[in-house]
Amino acid sequence: MGFEKNPLPKSLSLSIRLGIGDSKNHISQIPNLKSINMTLFDVYPLFPFELTKAEGCYVWDENGNKYLDLYGGHAVISIGHTHPHYVKSITDQLNKIGFYSNSVQIPIQKELAQKLGALTGGYEDYSLFLCNSGAEANENALKLASFHTGRKKIIAFSKSFHGRTSAVVAATDDKSIIAPVNETSNIIFVPFNDEAALEVVMNDQIAGVIVEGLQGVGGVQVPTDSFLQKIRSLCDKFGALMIMDEIQSGYGRSGKFFSHQHSNVKADIISMAKGMGNGFPIGGIIIAPHIEPKHGMLGTTFGGNHLACAAAIAVCDIIKQENLMHNAAEVGTYLMVELKKISAIKDVRGYGLMIGVELDNYADVRKKLMIDHKILTGVSGKQNTIRLLPPLNITKSEADHFLKAFAEVVN
Questions:
Q1: Whether pLDDT at 124 is above 80
Q2: Does residue 79 contact residue 316 with C-beta atoms inside 8 Å?
Q3: What's the whole-model pTM score?
């Protein structure tokens, strides 16, 4: 039985079905199909092509052009496109059961928690709450900090980006995406890496301090070791929770599982997404043992579903088996060393395979890399910065291909 695509007057619909009257006259009264087609809500600036195929560190457009992907769709592609183990894991799971909500036992969630804990290098005793995206992960992190402390003030930092929804967009330093309904006095902004300013505002009314392991949208800004350590000590002093947003910088991208581990600190709550599912929507937070759960305090319909967990487990397997954290550290260091030799570049920032390249004509360079050399990169426009966020399995030869093209463009 087909679906009716257009609403018809009841009398017209009935007469057509019964074959009554002049059929040509009836048909002339049917609304023009083209005039009522649904369109997409236009909020994304898009590349001028579609992608139809992907493998490893490469993608192909509809005309067969091959691109080296150093963007990964906002740092999402962690283990490479269409990795065979990843594809097989999702396919096998779909052939069993694709989804049921968190109203039944889902053992694959526990398997993910165990494999994730083993990879984190120090967070094995934490608990995992699963959701669907980075924004949702950060929302739950802030909510949990407020529940745990009974407070409602949150400290965030300049140039931060934590998501586009309710509380986390209020904690994002970009007024252009904060709607009136999102405005709140509960977020206190402090200059990034300013320890003295942080000490001034920190008190026993603060529920939590949220900071990115590496600022992404903010231009790949690196928190100093002493800054993160100061956050940790002040949270301990005033009974607040330290929340590390590792949405973009986590899952091995920095050369360690979490970027903040470069600074030898440990957070109370860590948010994850992007590379966690290699393109399959999944997010989560890991939570310190001293934060107690109770039924109903957090929840989600789709979070931690069978397919999402199968994808995330495959990512953990491949990160471990292919030693991708080591590769991220090695190739990332090589890229940064070589980029710093190019005089046109003002600054190179980051860890591992999350690299910011600051230069005056960043937009032209990015465009020429894409059009002339078929290389995709990210950008932090307000910071004049090109972002390199390739899959963690990028090879040195692929890095050399980019470096050669980049040098040609900027010189």
A1: yes
A2: no
A3: 0.91
